[in-house]
Amino acid sequence: MYNNCCRTLNDHSPSLLSLFLSNMGVIDQKSKKEDEHPMISKPSRLILLVKGKHLLSPLVFITGFSIGLFLCLQLKSFHMPTMKTQQQSFWSTLLFNHTTTMETKQELQLQVLQHNMTDQELFTRVSSLSSSKSSSWFGWRYNNDEKMVVKVAFMFLTGRGLPLASLWDKFFEGHEGYYSIYIHTHPSFQDHYPETSVFYSRRIPSQAVYWGTSSMVDAERRLLANALLDESNQRFVLLSDSCIPLYNFTTIYDYLTGTNLSFIGSFDDPRKSGRGRYNPQMHPQINITHWRKGSQWFETTRELALHIISDTVYYKVFDQHCKPPCYMDEHYIPTLVHMLHGEMSSNRSLTWVDWSKAGPHPGRFIWPDITDEFLNRIRFTEECAYYGRDGENVTTSKCFLFARKFTKETLEPLLRISPAVLGFGP
């Protein structure tokens, strides 16, 4: 189209030249009388006219060419499809558009949660990040000193809604930009969080989860992988719908970002509920001396999370040979970390659970249980080692940052006492 348009303009260039010279008052001789210049003879005027024409010809050519080029480009853009932005790969926009505004970055973050990748496609994409040198994704946030701000990813694994959402809203209030939220729930469940809630539009593509099966670990890995897409997420916390925070956001954030270690419980349990669940068919990839048990509720660094997502060997072994009474969510990650990455973990969980009662499930808490004394007993009755980034090993009474299982009816008393006990709230 460009060539055709320019050819047409060239064919009519004499007319354009005549029009231009006419407006300049050079060749419109019929409208000018010779006696308007009585001091210049006719031959002299003819010479001046010819010279003026030669001087103006390049200027007219350049002007005509510029006008023609402008018109051709306008016509070309008019006929081009307007679907460029729709055809542009979402991931190329995510990876290469470094000048997006904060509002656009927030929109992109929401689009990430609405992708249509399969689990395998998602895990493959995330695994490729472990070898990438780039850290210029949309999620980065910088403070006034131009230092990168680390975010903590809070990953909620639930069968339906979050009955304690109002308590968590208060917990996160005022700390925007320092956390990310991801929710995995049953695909048929319709949530209705208000737009003012931190949980609004934070649901990832989910699948059904069945207790005691590998689908529980699949959901955990799905949450990790979605959170890893945002490279500003450097710490990852797995929580249930019955979890509560035991401290305010600043205390928990500093605790998590102040160490290079993950918090994954992993221990050798010689009982039937421990080594008794080992399947000899897991040999030779996994033998009985490797077998470990631990809490499902973990907190991990980005590096260790990438190792968990990238594993294909040991996951397949567990998926094939760990069936009830072997529960994959209690053994897979603890065993994997112990075998390959033990030096990266503090070997303890940050989520307190009451196992004082016999049975396959921990104790549950209702309204009358919620008192100052009860919460403080969870927060300060134990001592543990904490390894800071500077290599200092200190003993602390802050061993648990979260606790479960709290029922929906505990919301009101928790909101009432949280300002005085937990350090946040109304």
Keywords:
four-stranded mixed beta sheet, single chain, three-stranded mixed beta sheet, 426 residues, alpha/beta
Concise overview:
It contains 15 helices and 9 strands. It is an alpha/beta fold.
Can you characterise this structure?
The model is unreliable at 1-40, 42-50, 76-102 and 133-140 (pLDDT under 50). The strands form 3 sheets. This protein has a 4-stranded mixed beta sheet with strand order 2-1-3-5. The protein is globular. With 426 residues, it is α/β, with parallel strands linked by helices. It has helices at 2-11, 13-23, 42-79, 84-87, 90-96, 102-112, 119-129, 165-172, 215-228, 249-257, 302-310, 313-321, 328-340, 372-380, 411-421; strands spanning 151-157, 179-184, 233-240, 244-245, 299-301, 351-352, 384-387, 393-396, 402-403.
Helical stretch tally: 15
Beta content? 5-15%
Please describe the biggest sheet, giving its number of strands, its sense, and whether it closes into a barrel: 4 strands, mixed
Radius of gyration: 35 Å
Tell me, briefly, the overall form: globular
Q: What portion of residues is helical?
A: 40-55%
| Average of per-residue pLDDT values | 80
Strands, count: 9
List low-pLDDT spans: 1-40, 42-50, 76-102, 133-140
Measure the end-to-end span. 66 Å
Give the strand line-up of the largest sheet: 2-1-3-5
H-E order: HHHHHHHEHEHEEHEHHHEHEEEH
**Helix/sheet category:** alpha/beta
